[in-house]
Task: structure prediction
Amino acid sequence: MQFNPYGGTAAQLAVALVNAGPAATPDAVDDVLTTYDYRPAEDVGPTEVLELAEWAGRLGAVFAETDVGRRVQLVNALLADVAAPPYISQHDGRAPHFHYAEHDAPLVHRIKAYTAGGLAHALCDDPDRIGRCDRPGCGAVFVDTSRNGRRRFCTTRCANQTHVADHRRRRQDG
Result:
């Protein structure tokens, strides 16, 4: 069981949607949903992918913003767009868990509500843990779940590339 106080799986799904980019295919979105154990009964089609790409752009704005007050405004706007009373659900043999939209709402609405709720939790737990990769040219986003909360890169690969480039530059200058 994951005890993650930084938005949990819903925030990680938001990250994956943003990082999938606007050119994501139905299969890619389906893979993202499967990876984060979001099991829709219906297929993800081109229309849903376009709606989710637009939503991912709005989620991405939260990661791009560095001012906490502005981040709060952006997340509140997301929450307002999907406003529904959260409730606890049990289905498909799963443990009790929150739902942020009615179970019979359209797929895209349920995903929007889930990801907005996850980012809201992450923001309230620690707004500094919502970030964008520091490697020039990368732009991937992440929610920092590390112990010390000082993550700067989306992956170890981006961190290594940056550190190697810095090392080579120092050697050249010295």
The longest strand covers residues 87-89. The CA atoms of residues 67 and 103 lie 34 Å apart. Helices lie at 8-20, 26-35, 46-64, 68-81, 107-125, 156-173.
